[in-house]
Amino acid sequence: MTHWGLIGASTIAHEWVIDAIRTVGGEIVSVMSTSAERGAAYARDHGIAKSVNGVDELVNDPDVQAVYISTTNELHRDQVLAAARAGKHILCEKPLALSLDDAHAMVKAARDAGVVMATNHHLRGAATHRAMRDAIAAGTIGKPLAARVFHAVYLPPHLQGWRLDRPDAGGGVILDITVHDTDTLRFVLGDDPVEAIAVGQYGGMAKAGLEDAAMGALRFKSGLIAQFHDGFTTKYATTGFEVHGSEGSLIGRNCMTQQPVGTVTLRNVDGETELSLNHRNLYQNTLAGFEDAIAGRGKPLCSGEDGIWSLSTGLAVMQAAASGSAVRIEPGL
Fold it and tell me: What does residue 250 show for φ and ψ, rounded to 5 degrees?
């Protein structure tokens, strides 16, 4: 049983990750919040024994073996470095950092310390995406040629705040949602993006020059092209993920979500077939893979290096939207 410390008394931990840790057999022994009052209330509400106010106090606690970091994005680097120095395994929220140099330093620190580091791209745990990945790997749709991601949603009031008004914290739709699209595409296709074009939109939700919606396209090493639409502003849209190949298409619906839901339809010369899906809590799949990696049974579902790829692509999309030009994606791996 892994003993966990939470760095950040966050909504995502409250809604998803605490239960996932406990379901796979982990125990949460401490939570860190810079607000003593919030931290104490959070610990009490979630049955966590300790509440501390500093990262060093949490990572140097001998009872803590692994940390889950879900603070605002600009804080991730120093918190990961502190955890690595203390020899703790690390599950960090995306994006890993606000710069590639910082993300590389984080991954290197974990590698040098001999600890497991993973990025919490939860969509790798979706039954829909795993079924699509397996079908593509089996050659079911022939050569993949194009993909489309519809990930425009409405950001609920309890998640608004820094995502809409803090560029210094990595706010805006691209570092919040487009990075998920990137990781999902890489995971499902087994392919890497090399170039981005994009336009941003300012629909009135975000402040301080942050985009609250974006559209664009990515070109991949294989020649595949992928279109994406991401947003905080679309109250009535549905999400979807399509991959179109030389011999068929996979149509995912209601699948770019934290919920274990959605469908995948295979369309080919024989007509339409629904793929069989084994829906399970996405975060449980992530945590189960993390626990296996700690035990020496393979790698985490989404590694630190994968987090560098999604950050690199997100930064390229931001640059493309600002410049109006195509931008190379260069993760430096």
Answer: -110, 125
Query: What number of other Cβ atoms are within 10 A of residue 283's Cβ?
Result: 24
pTM of the model: 0.95
CA separation, residue 114 to residues 76, 109, 245, 293 (Å): 19, 9, 40, 12
Three-state helix/strand/coil letters over 60-72: CCCCCCEEEECCC
Q: Which residues contact 183 (CB under 8 A, 6 or more apart)?
A: 94, 119, 121, 123, 124, 302, 306, 309, 310
Task: Give the model confidence (pLDDT) of 276-307 as tens digits.
Answer: 999 999 999 999 999 999 999 999 999 999 99
- The Cα–Cα gap between 261 and 278 comes to 10
pLDDT of residue 209: 82
Q: Which CATH number fits domain 124-280+311-328: 3.30.360.10, 3.30.160.340, 3.40.640.10, 3.90.1150.10?
A: 3.30.360.10
Answer for the pair 47, 41: CB distance below 8 angstroms, yes or no. Answer: no
